[in-house]
Specification:
Length: 527
């Protein structure tokens, strides 16, 4: 696949500053103007906040119109970027796969077909689609029935061989395993709703009819792949304390706690163990509903024969549309699927290693110095990812020349916009400020690591590319400091003629989100 190479000089132009010394900001190559001096002082004052005492902070701001570096503190320091890692994955996917790329899921049969009898196996082949819903499997089953198949004498074979069988990302922490933002990755999977959290199920607990009864526990989608161990109680009155947890190595979800009579149901998104089997179970149930009987068993992980006869097919939305739930909601599963898809398409190997190589080559061609960074996964869940803020800004500056940039830019979260699929993880941040409906940026959150990188249009109409990466703080949140910097950038004007008194912007309170989680990772969403 042809791709345009960006000269290394672009990175030099975009980052016109020398490396910052630890803990100190640097001016531009020439003497700073009064406006720049005031911006330096403003950001310095924000970073002097006591919440960052003993922490590490990297901040870089570049005017993409002039190529001038307006601020640089520790721009070359390698820091844990959390979900800002998705900037690399998403741009590489848009360039190397293309905005029109789709994932296909198909059904094929081998053996002899006579009347409604298929004397052979039925193959469900996954193409990596992270947006497959139960209703999509139902439509596939309807196509099988419409093709005249009524009885399959062989097995239902779930073919997930497009990608390797490594289900969890390198370095992911064990205690995230049952939570939906760390779902297992498979080429054949199911999402429970249109947030498209593939490889998860929504578990619901509603109070029983009377105190002492077990709550009623159901799942979306309904399936027989997971088992419920209901240890919870319905009580007459009291606080709801329902909790769900999937046991390691299996598909038993343990429900504990209590819920009072008459209270609203509690729900949570849980990962499944082995998404391939989950998808096969949902599809097999759909076949039964449409009058198709499979006499054999369900077999996982076998490849579809080359001479199998196509029976049904479903194509995903194009990648341009997938960028919206991916980036707006910081969907980790989408990042990892795209990483493996890049490996599969470019080198024939659906692995993390092959995909990360493809990403590295693209961002290197776009001006990032890949010798200064390390990327271990597609989403940023790994704490072994290390990327300097200056490299993020180099990438953000370079991709503005890409033909797909406007689509990708629109998919970034938009500060202060309350619409969930516009504001995304920034929808409850910076509302009512100069940054609202202005700043387009990717958020990032892990315990002790927070980031915000993207674009702010300043008061002069210049687009500023910026990256803020904060590490090793002990407080519960530093999001407000990121917001103050973004607001300062949106308010910046180069026309100021005096240094004036430094005014640190105030940022509205953000919703309380558990430490280490993105806003949209808290289900049901709190922001």
């Amino acid at each position: 696949m042809h791709r345009r190479l960006f000269p290394r000089a672009l990175a030099v132009l975009a980052l016109v500053a020398t490396a910052a010394t630890a803990g100190a900001s640097t001016a531009t190559a020439e003497a700073p103007t009064p406006a720049q001096t005031r911006l330096h002082a403003t950001i310095d004052a924000i970073l002097a906040d006591s919440r960052l005492a003993g922490a590490q902070a990297g901040v870089v701001v570049v005017d993409t119109t002039t190529g001038e570096t307006l601020y640089d503190r520790n721009g070359d320091r390698r820091l844990v970027p959390a979900s800002n890692t998705k900037l690399l994955t998403s741009t590489a996917a848009m360039e190397l796969l293309g905005p029109g790329h789709r994932f296909s899921t198909d059904v094929a049969g081998d053996g002899v077909r006579r009347a409604g009898l298929l004397s052979g196996n039925l193959y469900l082949r996954g193409g990596g689609d992270p947006t497959m819903l139960a209703e999509d499997y139902d439509r596939l089953a309807a196509q099988v029935a419409a093709a005249g198949v009524r009885v399959v004498t062989g097995n239902l074979v779930a073919d997930d061989t497009r990608y390797d069988r490594t289900r969890l990302g390198p370095d992911w922490t064990w205690d995230d395993e049952s939570y939906y933002y760390a779902a297992q990755v498979s080429a054949l999977t199911v999402a429970p709703d249109t947030d498209y959290d593939a490889g998860t199920v929504i578990v619901h607990a509603a109070p029983g009819a009377q105190a002492g009864a077990r709550p009623k526990v159901t799942m979306t989608p309904a399936n027989d792949w997971l088992r419920i161990d209901n240890r919870a109680q319905t009580v007459a009155t009291g606080e709801t304390t329902i909790s769900f947890e999937r046991e390691h190595g299996g598909n038993t979800i343990v429900v504990t706690g209590q819920i009072a009579v008459g209270q609203a149901e509690e729900s949570d998104w849980m990962t499944v163990w082995e998404p391939t089997g989950y998808a096969a179970d949902v599809f097999r149930s759909a076949l039964r509903r449409h009058g198709v009987r499979v006499l054999g068993r369900t077999v996982l992980g076998q490849a579809t024969p080359d001479d199998a006869t196509p029976v049904a097919r479903h194509d995903s939305m194009p990648l341009a549309d997938l960028m919206v739930p991916f980036l707006k909601l910081s969907n980790n599963g989408h990042a990892e699927v795209l990483t493996k898809e890049l490996g599969r398409v470019l080198s024939g190997s659906g692995t993390w290693a092959a995909g990360l190589t493809a990403i590295s080559e693209y961002v290197g061609d776009s001006g990032m110095d890949t010798g200064t960074l390390r990327q271990r996964d597609g989403s940023g869940l790994s704490r072994r990812n290390m990327i300097p803020p200056a490299q993020f800004v180099g990438l953000l500056s370079a991709v503005r020349a890409e033909p797909w940039f406007d689509t990708w830019y629109a998919a970034l979260p938009v500060a202060g916009n309350p619409e969930r699929f516009v504001g995304g993880t920034l929808r409850s941040r910076m509302a009512g400020t100069a940054a609202a409906n202005n700043v387009h940026a990717k958020t990032g959150s892990l315990t002790g690591a927070s980031s915000l990188s993207g674009y702010a249009t300043d008061a002069d109409g210049h687009v500023l590319a910026f990256s803020v990466v904060l590490n090793n703080y002990l407080t519960s949140s530093v999001k407000g400091l990121e917001d103050q910097i973004a607001i300062a950038l949106a308010s910046y004007t180069a026309k100021a003629t005096t240094t004036a008194r430094v005014a640190v912007p105030t940022a509205p309170e953000s919703p309380r989100v558990p430490e280490g989680l993105e806003c949209s990772w808290v289900k049901p969403a709190v922001c």
